[in-house]
Design the sequence.
């Protein structure tokens, strides 16, 4: 679904659904009404469907897994089957109001290139990812000496679709280096009842999920 590095049939995407949907309300709030939206790695279209219903967006999705694309089309969504990076190459600069990268960035081979292209194509980019500096992840590595398995990282090391890891501080540092304006940051912790609890203090330690809304600095 989310990256060509891991064949879709090797990943049970249902296990990450609580994480993948946790920030949907926040993403919807950040999308203007009737915006032109591109959702990269849109899965079965749950977020696009909600954006279409609640924001009246002009939607387009890109998805690699054929069965997910078929489900999107059956739901009346405009979705194509393609590699995420390749799908951006022929698009004009600022051809979309909003580009969404919801829980896909760390599962891609070239996350920096994908982000750079997304910022070229979209006026705004909404990117969410699991925070690898979350305290439960740190404690599992420190005390158990094993790669973590949590609600936001529900896969064992040999089956995870994530081929990259990043923390809140890592992403902030990248945005500063590349001079991308971060106009909104949102952080949540997905609790044992799969509820997204807002985190406002020490997010690098206490948040299990991060959402950044960003743009390039004005020239």
Sequence:
């Amino acid at each position: 679904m989310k990256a060509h590095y891991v064949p879709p049939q090797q990943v049970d995407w249902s296990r990450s659904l609580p994480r993948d949907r946790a920030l949907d309300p926040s993403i919807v709030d950040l999308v203007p009404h009737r915006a032109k939206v591109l959702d990269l790695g849109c899965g079965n279209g749950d977020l696009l469907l909600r954006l279409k219903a609640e924001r009246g967006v002009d939607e387009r999705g890109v998805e690699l897994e054929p069965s997910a694309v078929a489900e999107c089309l059956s739901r009346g969504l405009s979705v194509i089957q393609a590699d995420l990076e390749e799908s951006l190459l022929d698009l004009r600069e600022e051809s979309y109001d909003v580009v969404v990268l919801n829980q896909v960035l760390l599962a891609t081979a070239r996350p920096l290139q994908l982000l750079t292209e997304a910022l070229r194509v979209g006026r705004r980019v909404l990117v969410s990812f699991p925070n690898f500096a979350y305290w439960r992840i740190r404690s599992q590595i420190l005390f158990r000496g094993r790669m973590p398995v949590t609600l936001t990282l529900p896969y064992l090391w040999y089956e995870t679709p994530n081929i990259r890891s990043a923390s809140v501080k890592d992403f902030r540092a990248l945005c500063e280096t590349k001079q991308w304006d971060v106009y909104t940051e949102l952080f949540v912790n997905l609790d044992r009842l799969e509820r997204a609890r807002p985190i406002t203090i020490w997010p690098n330690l206490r948040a299990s999920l991060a959402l950044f809304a960003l743009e390039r600095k004005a020239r």
Notes: Residues 147 and 157 are 6 Å apart (CA to CA). The chain has one domain: 8-216.
